# Entry
Amino acid sequence: MASSSSQGKYDVFLSFRGEDTRDNITSHLNAALRRRKIVTFIDDELVRGDEISPSLLNAISGSKISIIIFSKGYASSTWCLQELVEILNCKRMFGQIVIPVFYHVDPSDVRKQTGAYGDAFGKHEGRYRKRKEMLQRWRNALTEAADLSGFDSNSIR
# Structure
């Protein structure tokens, strides 16, 4: 198995829904990692569109670890869901370490796409009804990521 760490540009890639977490957990986590000289990638300056840019794909694949901050609005962002699929591909292909953080969401809502995650998928199913395979990839990715060992903000600070 190839190792992303041998060519990794970043130690940690942070995946998050900006409007939910940028000015709280994400900024605090990023600052704490950088204080410890951990090189992070945070997509503060990327222009959002329908597709993930090649530079973002390179940042994901060039990272040793991905931390996914699941918040209430994470699943409403198709960009976040595409990032998640790519992160899990890198986990399988390169052995990238993936750490989920459940920020004020129940891990079972992420795993089963219920609550806010179910609401988000209701909207996605209307918008992407002709792209069922993409919707299923997103669902599978959420389930897979929620099954990983991680941190639940409802249990720990």
Q: What stands out?
A: Residues 1-6 have pLDDT under 50 and may be disordered. Helices lie at 18-35, 54-61, 78-94, 107-112, 116-127, 132-146. The CA atoms of residues 4 and 88 lie 13 Å apart. The chain has one domain: 4-152.
